[in-house]
């Protein structure tokens, strides 16, 4: 298991720990090209971008490709 040095959280995959550690540093690497708002997670940015595209209806948003279904 991979343990976070900042809190009690532990993860079975190193990639999960890496994603979690962003919550401690406040890093927001994903920025909206329309309004410059930034997000910690890519999926959060993709959901936000639907506002600019006029797609406010609830739909499945694929975290891999960003397409709605």
From TrEMBL:
InterPro entries: Znf_C2H2_sf, Znf_C2H2_type. Keywords: DNA-binding, Metal-binding, Nucleus, Repeat, Transcription, Transcription regulation, Zinc, Zinc-finger. PROSITE patterns: ZINC_FINGER_C2H2_1, ZINC_FINGER_C2H2_2. Gene3D superfamilies: Classic Zinc Finger. It is found in: Nucleus. PANTHER family: FI01424P, ZINC FINGER AND SCAN DOMAIN-CONTAINING. One of its GO terms (molecular function) is DNA-binding transcription factor activity, RNA polymerase II-specific. This is ZN777 protein. Residues 2-29, 30-57 form the C2H2-type domain. Belongs to the krueppel C2H2-type zinc-finger protein family. GO terms for cellular component: nucleus. It comes from the Eukaryota.
